[in-house]
Amino acid sequence: MTDSGAPLTGLKIVTLAINLPGPVAAGRLRDLGASVTKVEPPDGDPLARGCPDWYRALHVNVTVVRLDLKAPPDRERLNPILANSDLLLTSSRPAALERLGLAWAVVHQEFPRLCQVAIIGHAPPDENRPGHDLTYQATLGLVSPPEMPRALIADLGGAEEAVSTALSLLLARERGAEAGFAQVSLATAAARFALPHQHGLTLGSGLLGGGWPGYNLYRAADGWIAVAALEPHFAERLRFELGVEAFTKQAIADAFGRRTAAEWEAWAATRDLPIVAVRE
Question: When you count CB atoms within 10 A of the terminal residue's CB, does the N or C end of the chain come out lower?
Fold first, then answer.
């Protein structure tokens, strides 16, 4: 909800971005105080059909207008919205924006105070190549078939990058610079999330991949617990409280098998240890 004390109060955002990254980014900008107008195609945003609850949450206090931007009359109706806005957020491929007359060169000439953040799939020179979160993660080795990813790291990471990019463009403009344009690649965002894996940190033998006894998953009497005793003081406290002499995965696993996951979580809370039951 817009707050008069929020940092973006008074700024107006227009977004053409459907599906997930765009609405998440627009929702974050709204939470920072911006006024957001969402332009959707005539049949709406696919997110509204695929995940209606999340769609509704992301569009609270967002003005939604439906326009067919491929039709000249509706495309003309977009111009007054752009003229009255500070930032344009898009998530179409550059070739599609060009066909709609929304390439940056055209937008900047017609609306010189309007900044633009364009969410794209792949970074140039592959900016018109199709893709989605699943393909970005699969390319980076973050998918373990047949399990589907539980987190949409490209979409959500890209959304946060779109927000920070928007803030930098708006700040530069407010400091006297020319209104700017930037592209945010979802594949690049996913690649940043893949760095722990690529550097071996989350591999099976890595510090955060199961190689360290204090940072691991252990089976309890029922279910599993997540143990994150990463720092030496946590690890030593865990060893002492469990009463194990050797700080090994086997010794810790044997100890954790004696109680339920909920019991271990309660036990850890009283000892200031980072241990929780794994929820399904």
Answer: C
